[in-house]
Amino acid sequence: TVRQLEEGETEDVWINSALFDLKESYKSMARENSFEMDFEMKEDVRTTAGPLLEDMYAQIVENSIRHSEGSEIRITLEDNERPLVVIEDDGIGIPEDISDNLFDKGVKGQKTGNTGIGTVLIDRIAERYEIDIEVGESDMGGAEFRLEHQPAENC
Question: For the chain, how big is the Rg over CA atoms in Å?
Fold first, then answer.
């Protein structure tokens, strides 16, 4: 994965396709954990990215299912000047003691035995594809990740 980040080419990709594949990949995990996944995509939207774009989304969704203690994830795609993907849930949110350092190596929630490497991967992929990430509290009550992408180079 690190090699793919460092050496991988970028190209214009359909965000909708990556999100559709994500939905299909996580359908059974969501069902097994009594999670509902709601997707709101009205338009076909492109960005300049690479093969790890879906992996970045997947890390956020998987963390939500495993750690949020919620029951619903909403993923929204907006075709703005810079395409925007919002991934939010109705869980407990991100603990205050790690929210400022969420993407630092070794930072993890206290309830998990995980390494925290998933959030580092999210940050590295976002940096490589010039995606700005804002993390905050969702209107649903849990965590919200706002991912502002670069517009496609060849629209």
Answer: 15
Four-residue CA torsion sign, 8, 66, 22, 26? positive
Tell which residue, 61, 71, 86, 97, has the closest CA to residue 144: 86
101's CB contacts (< 8 A; 6+ apart) are: 107
Tokens standing for residue 68? 């949020």
- What tokens appear for 42 in the block? 């009205």
Of 42-46, 103-107, 122-126, least confident by mean pLDDT is 103-107
> Tokens for 117?
């490497």
Per-residue pLDDT tens over the stretch 63-121:
899 888 999 999 999 988 899 999 999 999 887 766 666 655 555 555 555 555 667 88
What are the strands, taking DSSP E only, across the chain? Answer: 11-14, 36-41, 46-49, 72-78, 84-89, 132-137, 143-148
Residue 2 has pLDDT above 60, yes or no: no
Q: Which two tokens stand for residue 35?
A: 């999670």
